[in-house]
């Protein structure tokens, strides 16, 4: 009897151990294989190039003549190579933007590349991109705008059929594709075959997205679908290139109106920034941002190309928060990525390589407070420093706040920590803290909330230590952590900040003291022979200021740049619609403070147009105006349709410019309005014809160049 009891006991123990050694149960919504492939891609570029490149617009109206599209040296190979030099793994080609011009010889519309002079009407830009990606080992995706301001059928069921045929052509002829990209911009004014009218659609139902997405699933089953509502990858809710500090890969999209079905362009997009903890769908975020201020190339924005360290910062705030970085490239009229852009991309790519070349935690001894079933061979912490993204350290079901000690065996200096979960089992961990053993005691050096497919903790200063500790402080279930790494980002100085007050006084500052700040006013890059900044200086007539920080003879920061219009010291309000409150007074429109706004918003209906006219104090030569929308991430009162007037007596006005501020809601940067020819005037009037939302207008700043 005792022998039988002993055997039974052994069998029971073995059974329990066997049960405890099984993998943790998946938690919540889970990724598909396509989504896993997308997560591993990490970074890609979206390329905006077409007729808008030649009209100097962000959104074409749809009436552009295909004959203007005739690049002198288009090179898909050069464009894709520029992206690859930046460390990007794929490109998304804007095959058709809102203007409706198709970059491939489609059978669905005459408004396509075959009607252009490019290669005598025999060109096919999509084919050239496909060949370039194949040659360089890069992934290819496509974006075909759902909105078409050229097509006379837009707004009818017939157009939806045309749109779906365009997708079929792209999917059939240019695969394999890794992503099918869908914009939320749809419905509004356009050319529409000469009708020149506003066409509204039901954004919730018009495109029949379930049916449209079915085309992708059938013809490109490995491609993920991107859009405001995914269904595979969601928009992060801004065009600034960053996800939330907490960013969940799961998401439940909501329509703005109760009871409606959310759709692209019809969703509470701000919820996409953080996602939804325990959301209904696995739908991680994509962070889209342009390398330049705008999405298409504009000569006036050559000085606004993002620097390598700005791109690195965006990398930490996108890829480093479990999202992907989708960087906009804008080939110039020649049909290639401008040399300025290539330089920044290449230096950024080199920075990434330098930073993540070596995991300083390799070779460390890792000791966990708990290992699932005691089975270190299957679930031990050693898997955190291998090269497999899905091997992992797991704990017993009841152990949700374990600790891990990392003995580096020798002091290591680092400033970046990387964590990853095995997302095949869902996004599980909700909070972590990292400590370093310094001067005989543990000191916290970093913390994070969501982890998911990738989490980078960028430390504010270098840390040198030989022993570290990772503490999981919050998780609803057993953990499945797959990666732990520490890295050293190269030392660099931060670029100076340049500002100007209403009196025209320019100030330049740095976050920390440096040996010298040097600047230029002629557009050239600052060098060690440039003037040293010592105190604010007047820049009454405006111009371009560039500055760079220097430390000793060997270290220098990237240069920063600011473009200023005329000084506003003498400006006065001539006339304006009444401000809503004292804090919204008209003078705020030219106080050189981007945080203050001129505000006429009211609760009741407001009549348009609304206007503000300004006396500049003296006659000025005017080449361009600038409108900066409110910078507080609110849409009410942002002007998207405008007219500018000038006058020499403040009574008789001449219209000098009118148009729309395309994409201003998603990309609320200063909107330049370049005049066809230079004029001289003392007074100008800004008139708002329409706003994105709200009853009234808001203006952060008006400028004259």
Structure description:
- The chain is α+β, with helices and mostly antiparallel strands and 705 residues long.
- The chain has 4 domains: 42-356, TIM Barrel (Alpha-Beta Barrel); 365-487, Sandwich (Jelly Rolls), CATH 2.60.120.260; 497-564, no CATH class; 572-704, Galactose-binding domain-like (Jelly Rolls).
- It is built from 10 helices and 34 strands.
- Strand 11 (285-290), helix 8 and strand 12 (324-329) form a beta-alpha-beta unit.
- Helix 8 packs across helix 9 (339-356).
- The protein is globular, with a radius of gyration of 28 Å.
Summarize the structure.
This protein has 705 residues and is of the alpha+beta class. Helix 4 (76-85) runs parallel beside helix 9 (339-356), helix 6 packs parallel to helix 7 (209-219) and helix 8 crosses helix 9.
Report mean pLDDT, rounded to a whole number.
93
Structural class by SSE content: alpha+beta
Output the radius of gyration: 28 Å
Tally of separate helices: 10
Sheet with the most strands: spatial strand order: 1-2-3-4-7-8-11-12
The biggest beta sheet, please? 8 strands, parallel, barrel
What's the CATH architecture of the largest domain? Alpha-Beta Barrel
CATH fold node name of the largest domain: TIM Barrel
Structural features:
705 residues; alpha+beta; TIM Barrel; Jelly Rolls; 4 domains; 8-stranded parallel barrel; 7-stranded antiparallel β-sheet; 16% helix; globular; Galactose-bd-like_sf
């Amino acid at each position: 009897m005792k022998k039988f009891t002993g055997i039974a006991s052994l069998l029971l123990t073995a059974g329990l151990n066997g049960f405890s050694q099984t993998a943790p149960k998946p938690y919540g919504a889970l990724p598909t294989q396509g989504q896993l492939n997308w997560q591993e891609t990490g970074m890609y570029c979206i390329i905006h190039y077409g007729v808008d490149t030649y009209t100097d617009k962000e959104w074409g109206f749809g009436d552009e003549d295909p004959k203007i599209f005739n690049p002198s040296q288009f090179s898909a190979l050069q464009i894709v190579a520029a992206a690859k030099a930046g460390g990007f793994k794929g490109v998304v080609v804007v095959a058709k933007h809102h203007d409706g011009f198709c970059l491939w010889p489609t059978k669905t519309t005459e408004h396509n590349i075959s009607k252009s002079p490019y290669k005598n009407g025999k060109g096919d830009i999509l084919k050239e991109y496909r060949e370039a990606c194949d040659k360089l080992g890069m992934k290819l995706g496509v974006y075909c705008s759902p909105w078409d301001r050229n097509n006379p059928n837009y707004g009818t069921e017939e157009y939806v059929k045309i749109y779906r045929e365009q997708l079929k052509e792209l999917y059939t002829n240019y695969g394999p594709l890794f992503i099918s990209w869908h914009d939320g911009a749809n419905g509004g004014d356009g050319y529409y075959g000469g009708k020149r009218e506003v066409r509204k659609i039901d954004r919730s139902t018009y495109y029949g997205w379930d049916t449209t997405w079915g085309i992708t699933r059938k013809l490109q089953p490995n491609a993920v679908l991107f859009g405001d509502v995914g269904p595979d990858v969601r928009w992060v809710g801004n065009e600034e290139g960053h996800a939330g500090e907490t960013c969940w890969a799961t998401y439940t999209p909501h329509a703005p109106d109760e009871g409606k079905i959310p759709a692209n362009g019809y969703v509470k997009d701000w919820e996409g920034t953080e996602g939804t903890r325990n959301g209904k769908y696995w739908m991680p975020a994509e962070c889209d941002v342009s390398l330049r201020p705008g999405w298409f190339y504009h000569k006036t924005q050559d000085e606004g190309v993002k620097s390598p360290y700005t791109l690195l910062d965006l990398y930490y705030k996108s890829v480093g928060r479990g999202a992907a970085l989708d960087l906009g490239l804008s080939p110039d009229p020649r049909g290639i990525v401008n040399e300025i852009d290539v330089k920044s991309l290449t230096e950024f790519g080199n920075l990434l390589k330098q930073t993540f070349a070596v995991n300083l935690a390799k070779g460390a001894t890792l000791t966990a407070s708990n290992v699932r079933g005691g089975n270190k061979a299957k679930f031990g912490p050693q898997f955190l420093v291998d090269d497999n993204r899905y091997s992992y350290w797991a704990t017993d079901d009841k152990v949700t706040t374990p600790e891990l000690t990392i003995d580096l065996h020798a002091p290591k200096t680092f400033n970046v920590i990387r964590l990853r979960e095995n997302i095949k089992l869902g996004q599980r961990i909700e909070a972590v803290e990292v400590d370093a053993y310094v001067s005989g005691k543990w000191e916290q050096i970093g913390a994070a909330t969501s982890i998911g497919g990738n989490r980078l903790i960028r430390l504010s200063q270098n840390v040198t230590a030989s022993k570290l500790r990772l503490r999981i402080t919050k998780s609803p279930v057993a953990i499945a952590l797959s990666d732990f790494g520490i890295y050293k980002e190269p030392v660099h100085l931060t670029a100076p900040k340049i500002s100007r007050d209403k009196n025209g006084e320019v100030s330049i500052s740095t976050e920390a003291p440096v040996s010298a700040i040097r600047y230029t006013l002629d557009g050239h890059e600052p060098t060690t022979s440039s003037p040293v900044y010592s105190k604010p200086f007047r820049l009454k007539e405006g111009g371009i200021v560039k500055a760079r920080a220097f430390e000793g003879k060997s270290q220098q920061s990237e240069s920063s740049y600011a473009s200023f219009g005329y000084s506003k010291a003498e400006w006065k309000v001539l006339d304006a619609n009444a401000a809503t409150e004292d804090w919204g007074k008209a003078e705020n429109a030219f106080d050189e403070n981007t945080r203050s706004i001129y505000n006429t918003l009211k609760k009741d209906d407001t009549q348009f147009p609304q206007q503000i006219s300004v006396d500049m104090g003296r006659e000025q030569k005017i080449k361009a105006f600038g409108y900066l929308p409110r910078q507080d991430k609110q849409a009410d009162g942002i002007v998207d349709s405008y007219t500018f007037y000038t006058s020499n007596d403040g009574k008789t006005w001449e219209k000098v410019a009118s148009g729309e501020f395309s994409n201003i809601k998603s990309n609320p940067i200063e909107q330049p309005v370049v005049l066809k020819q230079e004029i001289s005037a003392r007074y100008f009037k800004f008139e708002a014809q329409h706003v994105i939302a709200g009853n009234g207008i808001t203006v952060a700043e008006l400028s004259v160049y």
